[in-house]
Amino acid sequence: MDYRFSENDPWLQGLEKLLEQLLSIFNQLLLHVDGDVDRALEILEQLGKRHGFFNEKFGIAEFKKWLEGRHQIAANGRGGHSLTQRGERELRASTLDPIFGSLQRAGAGEHRVAQHGVGVERLPETKPWSFGDPLHLIDPMETLSNAVKRGGIDDITIEESDMRVYETEHLSSCATVLMIDVSHSMVLYGEDRITPAKRVALALCELITTRYPKDNLSVILFGDTAWEVPMAELPYLSAGPYHTNTKAGLELAREILRKKRQANRQIIMLTDGKPSALTERNGEIYKNPFGLDRRVVNKTLEEAEYCRRLGIPITTFMLTTDPLLVDFVERFTEINRGRAYYSELDRLGSFVLVDYVKNRKRRVR
Questions:
Q1: CATH for the stretch 174-359
Q2: For the chain (length 365 residues), average pLDDT per consecutive 10?
Q3: Which of 4, 21, 22, 20 is nearest to 12 (CA)?
Q4: Where does the chain have alpha helices with state H?
Q5: 353 touches 208 (CB < 8 A)
Q6: Are 249 and 276 in contact (CB under 8 A)?
Q7: Which of 165, 192, 259, 334 is the most buried (most CB within 10 A)?
């Protein structure tokens, strides 16, 4: 479906803005319904009727055709629709822009290392030119301004003392494993923690693939066991009837990072903080959902210590403030010498992305 927007037609002018708003709502709904396109459209239609999004000129059928025309959704052969690869990319982008875009405008995402030198990212600050500084880093405006201040506008000659060059910062590539808790507790007591976790995973994937292409991100889900998932599966994640085998997740993350060549290696873990399962040597799963089982806790803490010895810091983002679980995470963090954040769900994305950008710019050992 093709619409021509005209300055002479107020309705067509408003349609472009409406489409942007509907697309934003649609993408948010996709996260809540685990990527089910038809369910998201059904809810959007209900919201449209309630809040007057649609009219006789433009309804849910026209919006669906518009999505198809943009190749974001397509018929799946089962009488319904599914996201296309483009739709999945658009969904990732929609999670990153509201989080990271606002951070950049506010300056909250700028975390620089103390040392300056030749790197891959130019800083806005300048310094006097010295022998060996690359010529492509010369700031022409400030250099010219210095020459004018020194010799006047009638006789502009540039001397070495006038030259200013942009400073740069050292950046190193980073291998990150994002661990997402998909145990039943992530949706327990009516609190949805899995949707914010999915939003963070999608945003982090988009950040790395578009802005840090030399970095590597792997995603692990952990419940009764732990398993790696590709980026394409992230919109469709859901919490299951699982216990929380944190140790299995850390073991798998450690094995993945062992094979990476990046200078920095780190684990980012999104969890409610309560390990409740272990994998026995014979492959059976030992489970104890009641309280903090000492055996489960000790084995999990041992894994945190092992990661520390390998130089792999663990950043834990706690999705609950239960005092008992906070105590465990503090012990876990102290043993690993990592970091822990106790984040509100609506601010989880900004915390994770700022932490990632900050810590990829220094060697973590």
A1: 3.40.50.410
A2: 51 78 94 94 93 87 94 92 94 81 45 36 75 82 88 82 78 86 86 87 88 89 96 92 96 95 88 89 92 93 95 87 83 92 73 74 47
A3: 4
A4: 10-32, 37-51, 60-69, 85-96, 102-106, 140-151, 194-211, 246-258, 294-309, 323-336, 348-359
A5: no
A6: no
A7: 165
Q: Is residue 202 within 8 Å of 183, Cβ to Cβ? A: no
**Rounded to an integer, what distance in angstroms lies between the CA atom of residue 74 and that of residue 82?**
6
Domain residue extents for the chain: 10-83, 116-169, 174-359
Q: Give the position of tokens 């408003």.
A: 14
Q: How far apart are CA 361 and CA 351, in angstroms?
A: 16
Which residue matches tokens 């990153």? 96
Pairing label, strands 226-229, 216-222: antiparallel
**3-state SS class at 287:** strand
Torsion of CA 256, 262, 265, 270, to 10 degrees: -70
Chain-centre distance for alpha carbon 197: 9
Q: Tell me how far apart the alpha carbons of residues 147 and 152 are, in angstroms, rounded to a whole number.
A: 7
Task: For residue 225, give both structure tokens.
Answer: 């066991």
| CA-closest candidate to residue 188, choices 268, 272, 249, 245 | 272
Tokens of 152: 């006047």
In angstroms, how far is the first alpha carbon of the chain from the final one? 54
CB distance 297 to 349 below 8 Å:
no
Q: Are 99 and 93 in contact (CB under 8 A)?
A: no
Is 0.85 surpassed by the pTM of this model? no
